[in-house]
Amino acid sequence: MPIVKVEMWPGRTQAQKAELARVITEAVVTIAHTTPESTIVIFKDVAKENWAVAGVLASQSP
Amino acid sequence: MPIVKVEMWPGRTQAQKAELARVITEAVVTIAHTTPESTIVIFKDVAKENWAVAGVLASQSP
Amino acid sequence: MPIVKVEMWPGRTQAQKAELARVITEAVVTIAHTTPESTIVIFKDVAKENWAVAGVLASQSP
Amino acid sequence: MPIVKVEMWPGRTQAQKAELARVITEAVVTIAHTTPESTIVIFKDVAKENWAVAGVLASQSP
Amino acid sequence: MPIVKVEMWPGRTQAQKAELARVITEAVVTIAHTTPESTIVIFKDVAKENWAVAGVLASQSP
Amino acid sequence: MPIVKVEMWPGRTQAQKAELARVITEAVVTIAHTTPESTIVIFKDVAKENWAVAGVLASQSP
Predict the structure, then answer these.
(1) Which of A13, B15, B50, D56 is the most buried (most CB within 10 A)?
(2) What CATH class has A3-60?
(3) Is the ipTM of this complex over 0.90?
């Protein structure tokens, strides 16, 4: 039943997301004792224009 | 005051989303006793490339 | 595959949530053409102390 | 450590988002006593086609 | 229409949350040109036991 | 910069969450090429009373 959401800046390839989904699912199944079939991993790309740290958009960060 | 978020794969038409928003709002108002005006429904399309089940991206699922 | 999240103030009974989950799932399945088994509905109670409209916490609203 | 998410209709400029990130971070740091470096602000544009109030999509609202 | 979510560790008082809601709403209204009535601010307390940075739960961080 | 949210039913121990945070962070750092310090993992316990599959609350599921 776990739902895992991963929010990152864009730029990761399909291969990287596929590998991340595989490894995170394996970790959740092994450590939290769930089944793979009930584990969902969702990726959300968030543009640097929409992500600020310390009050500064990452797209404008030096 | 309820906020309802619906995350689905892309592909639903505007007509389908409009109908879903109407029916879900009606259900929330009737069952949870709120007002239509205070009920918000938000749709988020999540690409199959960003959605994994059992550790496999839906875009790569057989 | 749809994931539906419903954020509301506390106070709904289990019977109300059960009915809401049933009706929302039925709507999603019928209108968005998914299967019941792949449809998840999650409720999140948000206390009035944590919910502000127009800059005023609902717990302090007249 | 605070994470602030702002969901709005599209149309805000980069300048508006930059200003919002700056002011919100300042408010969080000052009022909630955190550090700027640990404060993240994320913007999510939600199209009017995906946002319904009172059961009607904002894109179809009169 | 903006929805703002603020996730923080527990410990902020009602007065701090009320002040944050007021200031954030004012910022959103002024900078993003919305109305106060359509601006929602939601706070979510996340325990240190449920928040990890650099792979270490904040509750176990030195 | 990645933010990872893990929503699960309650019942995982602090040790399980600590191990999950460690392994997920390691995966994100290695596969997505980020730094540990900028990787946040947040756990959200969702009670079975608030989680429905196929229109049935998990707390009422046979």
Answers:
(1) B50
(2) alpha beta
(3) yes
